[in-house]
Each structure stands twice: as C-alpha cells, then as structure tokens.
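Usage

Read records sequentially. Each one opens with the input sequence:
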Amino acid sequence: MNKVIAVLVMAEEKWREADFLRQEIESRGFKTLIVDMGLIGEPQGPCDIPREELIRVSGRDPEEVARITDRGKRMPVMVEGSKRKLQELHSQGKLAGVISLGGATGTQMGTSIMRSLPFGVPKLALSSTASVRGLAERYIGTADITLMHSVVEFGGLDDLLRNALTRAAGAICGMAAASAKAPVSFNGKDRRPLVALTHFGPCEYCAMTVRRLLEERGYQVVGFSAAGTGDRAMEEMIEQLDIFQGVVDLAPGGVGEELLGFARAAGPTRLEAAGKKGLPQVVSTCGVNFGSPRKRDYRPEYEGRKKYEYDALRTFIKLSPDELVMVAQEIARKLNQSQGPVKVIIPLGGWSSVDKRGTYFYDKEADRAFVAELKRKLKEKIEVREIEADLETPEFARAVVAAFVEVMQSR
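and closes with the structure output:
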C-alpha cells in the first residue's frame, strides 16, 4: 500500500513499545512511520521522522529548542511540528491513519495532533490514562478519535502489554482498511446535498420530523447533538469542510450556555460558522430559554427558579427575562454577521417538549422578552417568523422545512 499509518510516540520513553506496534501493523500489510514527538532525552531507537525534523517543520531552530530544559515549553513545539507533518502527509494522500501510545503526556500530545486532522481520518489513542477522571473529554474534544485503555502501564513489553498493543494494531489497521470503503458523501457516489441539523432531547420529535421531510426532498441530513460538544463539532466541521449546503439549527441554546457559564456551553464561535460561509440557515429556539448549571457551580439563587429534572444528570433552570435579553443580543450579534440568508422560526406554543404552553415550565413573559429583543437587534433582512404551534408538533416541523426551502431558493 502507498499509504502509511503514523505511530506517534515519545521515543525516549516508549520506543520499544512503538517498535512492537510497528511490527504488528506491518504484519497486516500496512506501512508505518514512527514519529518521535519526544521532549527530553535521546530516543531509544531509530525513528522514521525524528524530532529534529518536526522542530524544523514547526518553524523553530533545533539548536535553540535543544537548550530548552522545561518539558512543558518543548511540548507546543513538538505538537505543532507533528501537526504540520501529518497534515502534509494527509494533503498528499499518503496518510492511512494515526495511532499514539503513552500515558498522560503522550496521550495529550498525540490526541492534540490528531485533532488537527479532518473527520474521517482513522485516529486511535492507546493510553494508560484513558479512564482517569476528566481526561477523556480533553483527549477527544470534538474529534472522531477512538480512545483505548491499555489498563497496564507502558513500562516494558510484558505479555499483557503485548496483548493490548496487538489489539490496537488490529484496530487501527481495520479502521484504515474500512475508511477506503466508508460512505462519505463528499468523496463518494452519494451526491445528495448535505444539511446540518442540531438535535436535542427536548426537541427530538421535531428534529426527526424535519429530517424525514428534508430527506423526502432529496437532502441528506447530518445530525449533531446540541449538548455542548456535538454542536461545537458542527461549527468546526462547517468551517473546515466545504460539504454542507445549509443548516437547520433547532437548538442553539449553547450560545446562552456559553454566555452564562452553564454545562452545554458550545464555545465562543457557536452560531457563526454557517454565517461566515454564507450558508442558508433556519434557526429556532429549543433550549434557549433554560440553562443547565453544573452541580459544582450551583448557586442558592437558582432555588427560586422554575426547575425541570430532565434525567439523572441534568436539571434545567428557567432563564430570567434579563438573562434572555442578554442571550437575544448575543444571538442577534452572531446572526447579523451572516453572509447568507437566515430565517428565525419561533414556536409560540412552547420552545421544547418540557415547556409547552400550559405546563409549569412554560414562561410566556420571559419568552416574549427574548423575542422582542431579538427582533429589535436583528438586521431587517433577517425574518423572525412566529408559528402558532409548539415546537414538538408536525405543524412546526413543516414550517421549519418550508422556511428552509425558501432560504435555499434565495441563495
């Protein structure tokens, strides 16, 4: 095969393990490149891409970097050089996949490098710290990285570690072989236009109905969970990949959660990528009028709010009118930057399955404060369309699809 699987390793510590992994991968018919992303100390064996090459690729002088004795200060240099080298291999069509092995530092570096590669490139991190509380989220971020727990430490080639390395080799080779056949619409036979759609539990019926109606019109719909990570990933994919023709954003609540410091915060650029790309957008309001405070950040003042126990992990609290005005201003600011057509569709009968008109969680006055401020701040060219239905009804889903057809036709 002309393509290679890159093996990322700190070669001053775990070269023997990487060499064993290399042999296992090559026994399955793939070529490999051992990439030394090491920090301090000489590598234990030869590497196909030595750290000096990575330092030069990063734009730094190897002699200058050699004088840095702080591991933490060397890390950004090695990560940047590795990112550029792997991106170069990918752009040349030479990269079949990437695998890293290591503990906390090696996995941090390896997954950071992997996150710079686009969706669809096989990525596997074999880590002795995969199950450490709080680290998995940092390792994976919004990327399609597979994280495998080695259980045992990389401290020598005992039988248990050989077992884990052999299985990891089989996994990355299987992923690399399968990726050539994986259905990817922007690189395959399926040329139906792609539409990004946000999903969220309280608007799941609406999302599924919108999906079905769009598919009946010939679109291929790609869903993203609007729980903070999935919608952040959607923004990144829209920005990085020219594959989407439009966006139906039913649940942009991550904008307010970011503004107010809640758990579904979706990053400072949420609701911006489609606008910058000039993509047609239909935006609704599921999840915009309540927040998801983290337990560690729970404040006594929340006790006076309306609350909804959604599941064992999430309690929603109603946003105040003042908070909703702030959120409306932020959403308007972002949508006003859009280079393409935008319509905002608001259900008057309730914005989700948990706050339908007539329920305890419904708050007509607070919702009105949001809508009034949004209308006041949005540019005239952006229509705010109010529908006399709650969000989880077929009527509202049809109104969303009708609006999407209009923005697609107005491009």
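Summary fields computed downstream for this record:
- The two ends are 43 Å apart (CA to CA).
- The chain has two domains: 4-179, 185-409.
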